[in-house]
Amino acid sequence: MKGFVGVINLDHELDQLKELTYFRCGAAVPFAGRYRLIDFALSNMMYAGAQDISLFVRRKYRSLMDHLGEGRPWDLDRKRGGLFILPPDWHDPTDTSTGDLQHIHNNMDFFHRSTGDIIIHTGTQHVNKIDYKDVYAYHLEKGADVTVIYKKADELMPEHAACRRVEVDESGFVTDIHQELDHPNIYLEAFIMSKDLYLEQVNYCIAHGKSYFFRDAIQNNPNHLKIAGYEYKGYNAVINSVESYYKNSMDLLCPDNYHQLFRENPVQTKIKYEAPAKYLESAQVHNSLVANGCVIGGEVDNSILFRGVKVEKGAKVVNSIILQKCTIESGAVLENVILDKDVQITHDRTLIGDVKHPYVTAKSTSL
Predict the structure, then answer these.
(1) Which positions fall inside the Glucose-1-phosphate adenylyltransferase/Bifunctional protein GlmU-like C-terminal hexapeptide domain (predicted)?
(2) Is residue 189 within 8 Å of 125, Cβ to Cβ?
(3) From the centroid of its chain, how far is CA 322?
(4) What are phi and psi for residue 230, nearest 5 degrees?
(5) Are 199 and 326 in the same domain?
(6) What is the pLDDT confidence band of residue 294, given thresholds at 50, 70 and 90?
(7) 332-344 b/e with 16+ CB inside 10 Å = b?
C-alpha cells in the first residue's frame, strides 16, 4: 500500500466556542477529561501509518504548539518527516492565492518532500475513529479520484446545521454536495486522494482565482472528478459550538458512547505525569470522569473533571465540565457549568446554567 500524507486544515475552523476559544484555537480545546480535539485527528492518521503530517494554522496556535511539541505521542518526532506546523507567513509579493489554498501554495515544499503518495485531508471539528486504511481500500475498489467520508445521522442535531451533506447513488458515488438541512448524510470534513491529483487541482484552482480547495475543486467539481462516498458507521461528534461541546462531552458519561470512542486504538495525547486522583473521606462521586491529580472532598455528580481540579469539602459540582487546575471552594455550587482552566470559584458561590445553554467562564478568572 502506498504511504499516507496527512493534512489537518484549521483555516476554515472559526473560533466558535466563545470563552473556550478566547485564548486558543478550536483544535486545542480540551475534551473528554485529558485530550484536545486535535488528538483524535492525529491518532487516526497515526494508526493509518502517516509519517508526514502538516498542520495548517492561521491564528491562536500558541497553546496548540505547546500541546503538540515535536509530535512524540503520535510517533512524529522524526529526523525525516514527522509533524509540521505551517502558518501562511511567507509574504511572497507574487503570491495571488487566498483562503486555504494560500497554505498549500506557500508550503509546497512539504508536499514535494513528503514520502507518501496519498493525501488524507481533515479538520478537527469531527471527533471520531475513522480507519483510513479501510477508506483507502474502498477508494481503490471504486477506482475513484477522490473519496469523501460521511456519516448518516440517526437524528439531526443543531450542530449539524453548519455541516455539508453528501448525496450518494446506489453505486457509492457522490451525485451532489450541498447544505440542505433535512439531509442526513453529514460530510465529516475528511477526504483522501492521490498527492499528484491534489497538487494538480491546487494549481488549477489558484490559476482560476479560487480560494478554498474543497469547495472549488471537489464540491463544485469543475474537472468532473470521479468522487466516491465512504459511509463511516462509528462514533462521531460534531464540535462547532459551546452547546455541541457541552452536549457531546456529557454524552461520553454514557458507557456505550465512551467505549465506542476509546475502546479500540487508544487516542494518543501529550503525557503529563501526575499522581492519581485523591478522594477524601467526605467525597461523593457519581457517574463522572475524573482525571489524574484531582483532589475531591465534595460532591461530584455526572461531571467531567480534568487534571489537577480541586473540589473542597462542602462544594457541589453537577452536570459540569471543569478544566485543568480549577479550584471549587467549600460551599460553592456548580450546575450545568463549563469552567476553563485555572478558574477559582470562591466560598459559597453558586453558578447555575441551563442544560441547553451552559454557563461558561474564561480561563484564569476568579468568581
Answers:
(1) 282-353
(2) yes
(3) 19
(4) -100, 125
(5) no
(6) very high
(7) bbbbbbbbbbbbb
How many angstroms separate the Cα of 253 from the Cα of each of 51, 286, 288?
A: 34, 10, 7
* pLDDT classification of 151: cutoffs 50, 70, 90: very high
What is the total count of domains within the chain?
2
Query: For strand 174-178 and strand 165-168, is the pairing parallel, antiparallel, or unpaired?
Result: antiparallel
Q: What residues make up the domain containing 319?
A: 278-361
Phi-psi region of 287 (alpha: psi -120 to 50; beta: other; left: phi over 0): left
95 and 175 assigned to the same domain: yes
Q: Which amino acid is at 362?
A: A
185-194/118-122 β-pairing:
antiparallel
| Grid cell digits, residue 180 | 440542505
Residue 324 CB contacts under 8 Å (≥ 6 apart), including other chains: 30, 306, 307, 308, 309, 341, 342
Q: In this structure, are 55 and 147 located in the same domain?
A: yes
C-alpha cell at 316: 457541589
Question: Residue 1 pLDDT > 60, yes or no?
Answer: no
**Residues 348-366 pLDDT 10s:** 999 999 999 999 999 999 9
Name residue 46's amino acid.
Answer: M
Which residue, of 200, 228, 262, is where some domain finishes? 262
